[in-house]
Amino acid sequence: MKIEEVKSTVKTQRISSHSHIKGLGLDENGVPIPVAAGLVGQEEAREAAGIVVEMIKSKRMAGRAVLMAGPPGTGKTAIALAMAQELGSKVPFCPMVGSEVFSSEIKKTEVLMENFRRAIGLRVKETKEVYEGEVTELTPVETENPMGGYGKTVSHVIIGLKTAKGTKQLKLDPSIHESLTKEKVEVGDVIYIEANSGAVKRQGRSDTYATEYDLEAEEYVPLPKGDVHKKKEVIQDVTLHDLDVANARPQGGQDILSMMGQLVKSKKTEITDKLRMEINKVVNKYIDQGTAELVPGVLFIDEVHMLDIETFTYLHQALESSIAPIVIFATNRGRCEVRGAEDIISPHGMPLDLLDRLLIIRTLPYDKNEMSQILKLRAQTEGLNIDNDALVQLSHIGANSTLRYSVQLLTPASLTAKVNGRAIISKEDVIEVSTLFLDAKSSSKILSQHKDKYMK
Ligand SMILES: Nc1ncnc2c1ncn2[C@@H]1O[C@H](COP(=O)(O)OP(=O)(O)O)[C@@H](O)[C@H]1O
Ligand SMILES: [Mg+2]
After folding, report:
1. Is residue 41 within 6 Å of ligand 1 at its C-beta?
2. Could you tell me which residue ranges the AAA+ ATPase domain spans (predicted)?
């Protein structure tokens, strides 16, 4: 199994409308602070979510599932994302929407399985022989191309590494030059090079350069202690899906024919059940040996009523397996049909046997005061100025439709304000955009009033 060059395949999240949320906002006893970490109110749900986070952290949650249930716009998705933030970046969090399984290209269960494995982490600990230090010199040495023709090739690289204890100059293979370039290593960076594989890992910028320029994106690390050449415990966090992908990649050589083969082959590599079973076997072996540790993460399935009976059955089965993530479902449905099983009416449109193993967290509608506080936070995050009357008007609209709808009106309202020559969104702007756009409820009311005018 390849774990050396595993690239992370974490999904990018669509969280733009939740970017004000930084965590669950609990105090040290797990009690919600009314307004904290970007969250307002919804205190019972936040406290419950906090308990689930603790259970996940202490590994007492694997194979279990949580359902966030409540009307639209009551913060189900927001709280799930806050849980992800509380768990930290080392615990995998994979968000998906129920309808994602209905793709015309991939089997429903395949989509689920892939996301399942994105939500299971593996922390691999290995002791490796490495060269580590701050780069003091980086000189590629070029020679004439031995095959004739144009250009020069790199014959070797001279690199200087410094630690608190000493310095060393290394002469490295040209292949390492490529990894150095790929990791964008420069003088002043702290890196290590694995002696066996030649893999290069850039750890960050040496903190002696910290005042040089203040890029927030840059991570500063201290000058390594000990010798340049040493044994080091290397920890790598990957997900099972990362491993699947890395091992499914065609493993051809460097010659032109196999390169061509890789180009012609469709980009999507096939991950088969057989491959997954192989990976599981190796993973289990690593775990038994104590070189790896399983980190069950969170699979978040929003709008879970979109799943059908077949996918529910599959999910339920997968939850029974010894390698399973924690699943958080969210839905705004009450009693409804389970998709694909027309005659079964069930709470939240989920099969009863699955419901049976869930912890259910309820979210409740906000009052106007809470809505106006949330809208204020959103406006701040989006860099919009809004006056109090406008906030009151927006929360009034939110109370009659949903909070999400009134959050969405913020941006158009800021545009009308600008058109009307104002820098601050006022009540008139809110009223203007709310007459221009319809919320779902009024839209469906109009549809039913003028049934005969629309096509069926
Ligand atoms: N308690 C809260 N505190 C702060 N913002 C919230 C809160 N609840 C919801 N929001 C914000 O309101 C909007 C709608 O909430 P959302 O989580 O999408 O609702 P749901 O998933 O229940 O339909 C989002 O922009 C969300 O970030
Ligand atoms: Mg939602």
Report:
1. yes
2. 62-365
The amino acid present at 40, given as its one-letter code, is V
pLDDT per residue as tens digits for the range 99-148:
888 877 788 888 899 999 999 999 988 888 899 999 999 988 887 766 66
Distance CA 413, CA 432 (A): 8
Is 296 touching ligand 1 by the criterion CB < 6 Å?
no
How is the chain split into domains, by residue range?
Answer: 35-91+297-362, 126-235, 368-451
Q: Is 331 in the pocket of ligand 1 (CB under 6 A)?
A: no
H/E segment holding residue 443: helix 440-449
Distance (Å, rounded) from C-alpha 270 to C-alpha 279? 14
Using CA atoms, how far apart are residues 320 and 315, in angstroms rounded to an integer?
9
Protein residue closest via CA to atom 13 of ligand 1: 404
How many whole angstroms separate alpha carbon 120 and alpha carbon 307? 21
What is the CA 274 to chain-centroid distance, rounded?
27
Q: Is 373 in the pocket of ligand 1 (CB under 6 A)?
A: no
CB 200 within 8 A of CB 234: no
Domain at 35-91+297-362, CATH class: alpha beta
**CA-CA distance, 445 to 201, in Å (whole number)?**
59
142 contacts 174 by C-beta, under 8 angstroms = no
Model pLDDT for residues 367-410, shown as the tens digit of each residue: 889 999 999 998 888 888 899 999 999 999 988 888 988 998 99
Select 368-451's CATH number: 3.50.50.60, 1.10.8.60, 3.40.50.80, 3.60.15.10.
1.10.8.60
CATH topology of domain 126-235: OB fold (Dihydrolipoamide Acetyltransferase, E2P) (2.40.50)
Q: How far is the CA of 146 from the centre of ligand 1 (A)?
A: 63
SS3 of 264-294: HCCCCCCCCHHHHHHHHHHHHHHHHHCCEEE
Beta-carbon contacts of 110 under 8 Å, excluding residues fewer than 6 positions away, are none
Please give the Cα distance from 353 to 337 (Å, whole number): 15
Cα 55 to Cα 58, 239, 408: the distances in Å are 5, 20, 34
8 A C-beta contact, residue 161 and residue 168: yes
Task: Name the residue among 237, 247, 251 with its Cα closest to residue 271.
Answer: 247
Rounded distance from Cα 332 to ligand 2 centre (Å):
8
